[in-house]
């Protein structure tokens, strides 16, 4: 919880918030919300406190009270660090959200950088890097290719995907929005270059054409797929591969914000976005990405490619799409 790392600047308010957290951990969310409200009387401009109050009220079975707290949070948190817009959207109380705030993603993963791998691999049964690397290896074998040239690990995190790509590529580049993740990835020594950058902006700026772009568990924080896919198409060399995962939902909307504050995408909409970017599907698999709160998270594992023939698909991002896109990761 991001708000754990924020102080109100008022010692008494901080102490009450600490007591509220203890009550919540003990299972008394209603009491936690009451104490947290008292803390906010002392520090009404404390964005992190309103985030906590909303979470406590939600846990206490008070959705209207939670929404009221998150609306106040939204007014106070201009950078979107605490994900108020996502919380409101997940509660059905906000406008449609097309992307995750850049500040929220950076703060979230900076906070998790130290324990990220242990949580994913030991507690959440995370399989995305292995599955995507398997799709890439199978396509390389089909093509009779032993090694790819330039690869981009988009939203590289601590390097779990990069570890599995390294042996398949001559040059491996990582990019991530979180400074903590970039530092962890660089420390592994598996990347030729690691950059802290927003993904879509990174993809559409001039750079070496990529033979592979991989996005493992990244699109869950991007929202709208069209700008990302257009950016990938702009960066890929003809014949280049795009391996990605996304959470799947089976409703009528192209995407939804879940209680986890991650986006899930409808498979048909994902296929349509790939086609619009001029990318061809080579492999399409459904499966479990990881577990979340003890439940399996259904997702997609996809391998696509930019066609060899320039006339067969778009050669670059459609005008006004990727370049004007909101931040991703």
Descriptive account of the structure:
- The chain is of the alpha/beta class.
- It has 13 helices and nine strands.
- Strands 1, 2, 3, 4, 5, 6, 7, 8 and 9 form a nine-stranded mixed beta sheet that branches.
- Strand 4 (210-215), helix 12 and strand 5 (236-248) form a beta-alpha-beta unit.
- The model is unreliable at 310-326 (pLDDT under 50).
Helical segment tally? 13
Q: What class, by secondary structure content?
A: alpha/beta
Radius of gyration: 21 Å
List the helices and strands in order: HHHHHHHHEHEHEHEHEEEHEE
**Mean pLDDT, as a whole number?**
89
Unreliable spans: 310-326
Q: What helical percentage do the residues reach?
A: 40-55%
Q: What global shape is seen?
A: elongated
Secondary structure: number of strands? 9
Main sheet, how many strands, which sense, barrel? 9 strands, mixed
What proportion strand? 15-25%
- How far apart, in Å, are the first and last alpha carbons? 19 Å
In short:
By secondary structure, the chain is an alpha/beta fold. The chain is built from 13 helices and 9 strands.
Could you give the topology of this structure?
Layout: H1 11-25, H2 29-42, H3 47-59, H4 63-76, H5 84-90, H6 102-112, H7 116-123, H8 128-143, E1 148-154, H9 160-165, E2 169-176, H10 179-187, E3 193-196, H11 199-204, E4 210-215, H12 225-235, E5 236-248, E6 255-257, E7 263-265, H13 267-276, E8 280-292, E9 295-305
Helix pairs in contact: 1-2, 2-3, 3-4, 4-5, 12-13
Features:
nine-stranded mixed sheet, about 45% helix
